[in-house]
Design goal:
Shape: elongated
Structural class: alpha+beta
Number of helices: 9
Largest sheet: 8 strands, mixed
Order of helices and strands: EEEEHEEEEEHHEEEHEHHEEEEHHH
Oligomer: single chain
Strand content: 25-35%
Distance between the termini: 48 Å
Number of strands: 17
Helix content: 10-25%
Length: 360
């Protein structure tokens, strides 16, 4: 992995020319240069490098790959056969970024021309760098952008359209109205609504559906998680359009405000932790067990879809993707350990089908 030590002036001739966080505050794009080359890094909040791509040589290219510079924390230099400008090119012009909807990848433009892309699946620890306009073939520092355009350009156009829509007047209000209308039809009348976003993206709320008709429990659901795709999903599943958008739900016969704490806990988690949530996943409660909202016997939750005795919340789509509702079901410490050791199927075989309703 490339050594990374970001600062305004590092004292080794390296200059930081651009630093920009994604809309969720979980990844930062950093562009550096020295007199020999320029490079872009995609970093976590602690500075760990998750993706990186060489951008340009500013001096004549060496004949072979030089690993000493990146191993010393300096911008790499592409070898002669792997750059479109073997004699070097001037310093980069005006730079701007375009973040993927998920926030785990970014495109970099120079003077409004696509310069490089570090997608969410880039991982320099695994030898998968980003894509650069000036790259020819593949090196440990960059792969040819031209060879990947067919895959990347639809993603970039989707990202551009998404952020234009998201920044428009009334975008969130209209999305919220669509989700609430779907839940009205699937569950029943709305009660209270709580903000779970805290002023940070993604915007997430929690809607309460009090007992009515023959239903003796309150149902709570997030509203807003499905407004943006979750990060990293495409690393694990093939059908992105079926798994990338979710909302979370739970049910309680107790105080709905207590149960709502579960949704506040996980409502923004995928984007702030750059991960995803799916059927069969588990999460251990972040605080002392006695503070768990559904009772001290439990130490976390399993995320499950299609539970018996609970309403079918399917049928809502956004951005051409199906939205999956995952129910938060309380689980014990032993059950969390079982899932970690043997997988979610082993847990599902032992988990009472009506655990959520029985526990609340």
């Amino acid at each position: 992995m490339v050594t990374f030590r970001p600062s305004e002036t590092r004292g080794d001739g390296v200059e930081v020319v651009l630093t920009e966080a994604n809309p969720y505050g979980s990844r930062t794009l950093v562009v550096e240069r020295d007199e020999m080359s320029s490079v872009a890094y995609l970093c976590a909040s602690g500075g760990t490098v998750h993706g990186a791509v060489w951008l340009a040589n500013h001096v004549p290219a060496p004949p072979t790959v030089d690993l000493e510079r990146p191993n010393a924390g300096l911008p790499p230099v592409a070898p002669r056969a792997n750059t479109r400008h073997p004699s070097g090119r001037p310093p980069l012009g005006s730079l701007r970024s375009l973040w993927f909807e998920e926030g785990d990848g970014v495109a970099l433009y120079e003077n409004d021309e696509l310069l490089a892309v570090i997608p969410g699946w880039a991982d320099i620890g695994e030898g998968v760098p980003g894509y650069a306009r000036d790259a020819v073939g593949a090196t440990p520092f960059a792969r040819s952008l031209e060879e990947a355009r067919g895959e990347l350009e639809p993603r970039l156009e989707a990202a551009r359209s998404y952020w234009e829509w998201r920044g428009g007047d009334g975008a969130w209000a209209s999305f919220q109205q669509f989700v609430m209308g779907h839940l009205d039809r699937a569950v029943g009348s709305a009660g209270r609504f709580w903000d779970a976003g805290g002023g940070r993206l993604p915007t997430v709320g929690i809607t309460e559906r009090p007992p009515e008709r023959d239903r003796g429990h309150t149902i709570l659901s997030t509203v807003g998680m499905s407004c943006q795709r979750m990060p990293t999903v495409e690393r694990y599943v093939d059908r992105l359009e079926a798994y990338a958008r979710i909302e979370l739900a739970t049910a309680t016969r107790g105080d709905p405000k207590e149960a709502a704490r579960l949704l506040m806990w996980l409502g923004q988690y995928p984007w702030h932790s750059v991960t995803w949530l799916g059927h069969g996943h588990t999460a251990r409660w972040y605080h002392r067990p006695e503070t768990f909202p559904l009772g001290p016997a439990y130490h976390g939750v399993a995320l499950l879809s299609g539970l018996p005795g609970l309403p079918d919340l399917s049928g809502f789509t956004f951005g051409g993707d199906a939205v999956r509702w995952l129910w938060l079901v309380p689980v014990t410490a032993d059950e969390l350990d079982l899932a970690a050791a043997e997988g979610h199927r082993a847990l599902a075989e032992r988990l009472p089908a009506d655990r959520l309703l029985r526990s609340t």
